[in-house]
Amino acid sequence: MDQTLLNIGFGSTVVSDRVVAIVSPNSAPMKRLKDEAKDEKRLIDATYGRRTRSIIIMDSNHVILSAIQAETISQRYATLKEVKKDGNEKPGA
Fold it and tell me: Is 7 helix (H, G, I), strand (E, B) or coil?
């Protein structure tokens, strides 16, 4: 059972295979999603007091807030998927 961790900033990681979407928090639907998750106790705040710059939606229906840009996390995710596809254990190996 090989689980690849995705760095979402400031020492926080998530299991990359469980990520459904990485989105920007600026739109009204995303703000609504965040508020609903908070009300239903499915919200995980990994911003460490910084401004929310991305929202990560997991297959468990949890919503994770990150202070790292959505584009940056998406690039990290793509890199992990490429490394996993190639069969290498570490990026650049």
Answer: strand
What contacts 24+ positions apart, CB below 8 Å, involve 26-32?
30/55
What's CA 55's distance to the chain center, in Å?
Answer: 7
Burial 7-41 (b: 16+ CB within 10 A, else e): bbbeebebebeebeebbebeeeebeebbeebeeee
Alpha carbon distances (Å) from 2 to 17, 24, 57, 62 = 10, 29, 21, 21
Q: CB burial class (10 A; 0-12, 13-18, 19+) of residue 46?
A: buried
Residue 30 — φ and ψ, nearest 5°?
-70, -35
User: pLDDT digits over 35-55, tens only?
Assistant: 999 999 999 999 999 999 999
pTM of structure? 0.88
Give the Cα-Cα-Cα angle 45, 35, 77 (nearest 5 degrees): 45
